[in-house]
C-alpha cells in the first residue's frame, strides 16, 4: 500500500482529501490551502513551480503526485525523474478527465471502491445541474478572467468551457485553441459578454473588486458591465480541477438562474 504521499499541486491535494487519504499526505506545495484545517500543519515544499526537491526527498515519499494543469510543472517532473522518485502525473482538461484522475489515484493508493463511489456521486451532481437549468433559450456569453494584466482567459481545451456549457452558457473564448488565451481589451468589448467572472488564479476573492474591471476604459459598453453582471468568484471553485469545481458548477447555476432548486 502507498503510505507516504506528497502532492505538489493544490487540485491534487483536494482530490486526496476527497478519497480520504489526507492521513497519508506528508508534504504539499505552498499553494495547497484546502481543506485548511488539514493542510495547515503539513510541511510546505515551495511554490508549485519551484518545489524544493531536497526537502521533498527528505520526506521519503512512496508517491509524488504532480499535475500538468499547472503550466510549467514539466520542470518539476523532470527533476522527479532525475531523482528516481516514484511519481504520478495528472493532466485534466475536462470533467471526464477529473473522473479518470479520481480513479487513477484510487488505483494507485488502493482505494478503488471509494474512487468508484465518488465518481458516481460527481456524475450525479452534474446530471442534476444539467436537468435543472432552463432549455431552449439563447446561450449566455460568459467572460472568465484568470488574470488582468495581460488578460488571460480559458480557451477551448479547458474545464471552464465545458462547465459553461453544462449550465446552458458559452465561454467567450471557446473558439480559441488550447487551454488558455491571452485577449486584448477590444476583443472582450466587441464580443459583448453577458456576464464577467473574475477568478484570478491564486488571488482570494476579497482582494479583487468589481470596479477593477468596470472602470477599465471602454468597458462601459460591455453588456455585463452596463447591467451590473460583473462578479468576483472564489478562484478555488473554478481554477482547480478537483471536487471543488463541482461546487463551482452548482454556484454558477444558482447565480445565472436564481429560481433553481439544486
UniProtKB/TrEMBL annotation:
Residue ranges occupied by any Fe/B12 periplasmic-binding domain in the UniProt entry: 4-260
Domain of life per record: Bacteria
InterPro entries per the UniProt record, alphabetical: ABC_Transporter_SBP (IPR050902), ABC_transptr_periplasmic_BD (IPR002491), Vit_B12_bind_prot (IPR054828)
Gene3D superfamilies in alphabetical order: Nitrogenase molybdenum iron protein domain (3.40.50.1980)
PROSITE patterns listed in its UniProt record: FE_B12_PBP (PS50983)
Keywords: Signal
Keyword Signal on entry: yes
Family from the record: Belongs to the bacterial solute-binding protein 8 family.
The protein's name: ABC transporter substrate-binding protein
Organism for this UniProt entry: Tumebacillus flagellatus
Amino acid at each position: 500500500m502507498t503510505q507516504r504521499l506528497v502532492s505538489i499541486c493544490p487540485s491534487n491535494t483536494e482530490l486526496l482529501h476527497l478519497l480520504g487519504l489526507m492521513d497519508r499526505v506528508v508534504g504539499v506545495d505552498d499553494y495547497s490551502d484546502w481543506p485548511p484545517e488539514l493542510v495547515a500543519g503539513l510541511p510546505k515544499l515551495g511554490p508549485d513551480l519551484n518545489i524544493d526537491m531536497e526537502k521533498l526527498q527528505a520526506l521519503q515519499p512512496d508517491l509524488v503526485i504532480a499535475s500538468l494543469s499547472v503550466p510549467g510543472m514539466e520542470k518539476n517532473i523532470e527533476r522527479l525523474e532525475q531523482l528516481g522518485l516514484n511519481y504520478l502525473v495528472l493532466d485534466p482538461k475536462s470533467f471526464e478527465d477529473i473522473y479518470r484522475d479520481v480513479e487513477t489515484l484510487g488505483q494507485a493508493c488502493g482505494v478503488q471502491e471509494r474512487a468508484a463511489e465518488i465518481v458516481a456521486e460527481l456524475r450525479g451532481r452534474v446530471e442534476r445541474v444539467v436537468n435543472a437549468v432552463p432549455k431552449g433559450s439563447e446561450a449566455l456569453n460568459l467572460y472568465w478572467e484568470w488574470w488582468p494584466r495581460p488578460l488571460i482567459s480559458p480557451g477551448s481545451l479547458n474545464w471552464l468551457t465545458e462547465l459553461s456549457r453544462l449550465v446552458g452558457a458559452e465561454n467567450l473564448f471557446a473558439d480559441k485553441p488550447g487551454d488558455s488565451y491571452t485577449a486584448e481589451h477590444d476583443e472582450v468589448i466587441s464580443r459583448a459578454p453577458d456576464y464577467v467572472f473574475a477568478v484570478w488564479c491564486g488571488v482570494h476573492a476579497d482582494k479583487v473588486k468589481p470596479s477593477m474591471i468596470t472602470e477599465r476604459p471602454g468597458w462601459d459598453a460591455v453588456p455585463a458591465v452596463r447591467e451590473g453582471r460583473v462578479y468576483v468568484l472564489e478562484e478555488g471553485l473554478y481554477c482547480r480541477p478537483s471536487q471543488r469545481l463541482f461546487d463551482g458548477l452548482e454556484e454558477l447555476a444558482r447565480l445565472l438562474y436564481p429560481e433553481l432548486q439544486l
